Structures are given as structure tokens and as C-alpha cells.
Amino acid sequence: MTIEPLGARVLIRPLDQETTTKSGIILPETAKEKPQQGRIEAVGSEEEMMTDLTVGDTVLFAKYSGNEIEVDGKKFIIMEEGDVLARIKAD
Question: Which CATH class is domain 1-15+33-91?
């Protein structure tokens, strides 16, 4: 199944959070925070987009922004492009 966001929206696949702290403590599911990083899987209409976000970009977004959906057992978030706070670039 293919999902194509409409308007100035992006489809993001949240990145998995660490399950172990730096000191080696294993975190239970209830102690994990909502993901705030993800990879863009699809973008909406380029004419309506105000930024140059593209598929494959790793981005940072607010904890409770967007709408969570599940397709074929995979979790995604659809959000307005303005809810994306930053693009993460590798050095």
C-alpha cells in the first residue's frame, strides 16, 4: 500500500528509541518516551510545501504532533510540514 500525503503534509516513520540507558539499565515499555525523531517516507504537494524536505531526510518533531497511523503493521505519523522542527544532518 502506498500513502501519499495531501497538501503540505509529510509522512514520517518514527525511529526506534533506545531500550537501554548509557549505564546499562533496560527501560520497560512504560518508561519509554514518545519518539521525536523520524525518517520522511513521503511528502505532499511540492507546490504547497514551504520547505525543501525530501524523502529520506531524518527530522526532529514535537512529541505530540501529527496523527499516528498503522499500515501493514508499520507505524507512521502524518503531520503538517510546519510541525517538523529540524532536519538532522550527519557530520
Answer: mainly beta
CA 27 to chain centre: 21
Residue 31: all three cell numbers together = 518508561
Residue 14: pLDDT over 80: yes
Q: What is the DSSP-derived secondary structure letter of residue 34?
A: P
Longest Cα–Cα distance in the chain: 47
The Cα–Cα gap between 43 and 10 comes to 4
The model carries a pTM of 0.79
Report the distance separating Cα 81 and Cα 50, nearest Å.
Answer: 8
* CA pair distance 1, 65, nearest whole angstrom: 24
